[in-house]
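pasting for ref. prot 1 ->
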Amino acid sequence: MNIASLIDHCLLKPTATIAEVDQLCAEATANKFRAVGVLPLFVKRTKELLKDSAVKTATIVGFPFGHSVIEAKLAETVLAIVDGADEIELVINLSALKNVDWQYLAKEINTIMPVIKTKGRAIKVILETGLLNDTEIKTCCDVYGAAGVDMIKTSSGYAATIVSVDTVKLLRRHLADAVKINAGGGINNYETVKELLEAGADNISTENSIEIVKLAAAF
């Protein structure tokens, strides 16, 4: 198994520097990671640094808790696409979810989706599953599956929750096969990566990519 090709190499901390982004892209290119995940500020630079590689450029919208209004998220999405992002990672509005306002969440995704699809980009929806119960996760699968998203991501990593194998299994049971699962949140060793992939995850997001690849090579 080529673990590197299934890893999104991420740098989403609020103090990220240009030098760190440059290093991130160099590491991604050298290891042939699936994608690089960066803050919106660095999308243009990342796209330029990765132009001669197959590594995708991903960025977040509504980070970290998804509280921005729909119009603001739409504007963020448009700017990310203009700057060259291949994948948009949309953080759902957690407050709307906890208020059981599924109509709002459906409106949010159905407003943003057409812009992304018209431009031939991919959309990854971040749920923050560690803050949700099973019923909420199942309903998310229904709403975002119906919308036709490309991928569901378990966590942005910001909420300090660790993705579980059971959560990935739950998502896989309730999502159509066409919707991929990106496992993220506290992943720092190869054993966990292997378990998550076996549970149904299609790829992994982590800031510990280099260490995981090294550990994988030892097996």
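and prot 2 ->
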Amino acid sequence: MSTLNTSSVEKHEAGDAVLATRIGRKDTAAFEALMRRHNGRLFRVARAILRDDAEAEDALQESYLEAYRHIAAFRGQSQLSTWLTRIVINQSLMRLRQQKRSRVVVPFAGREGIDSESPEALLADERSEPPPVATLRAEVRRILERRIDELPAAFRTVFVMRDVEEMSVQETAECLSIPEATVRTRLFRARALLRQALARDLDSVTVDLFSFAGDRCDRIVAAVLARL
């Protein structure tokens, strides 16, 4: 890591520590700043586990309330973002268990993956892109999100934390309470499964590329006949 990046991380961590202290004194402005700083990452982690926007939002809200009530428990032994991520993961898993009753769905700390064999898409800026390009980009994003949702939960969560949120292997392992080697293995499998799924999507549409039937066919035939 460069000196500049190291300095940036240290500054960010120091800022979090200051916010934690202020929140401990019931400073709501500091708490709002904390939420705005970490909203994106925490929502995506919850969404990766729950696969539902509304459920993820609810889990995130409950997590923030829990963090606010127990901010004194944060000792600074890890990054504040890591502490918050753990709360969100626990809250999301609790909701998942409630949904599935007594079934254990996400074996994060259990065995290595699933026996049956278990790029962040940019949001289109419609103000600067032609509508067809923006529509295509949005459709590609929806396809990618759908395929990510189909990944086994343990792999999906690691994929979002590592590839979407760009969390380090160490922090991801710490948040999920699994070995770093397990993080690497699950990410490798998630990427492989995602590539396979997207390759199938691509194969299914290539037969229709540059379609010649319909209006185009009629137009060319009519034009040729008119010139005869």
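Confidence is low (pLDDT under 50) at residues 1-6, 102-127.
The domain at 131-210 is CATH 1.10.10.10 (Arc Repressor Mutant, subunit A).
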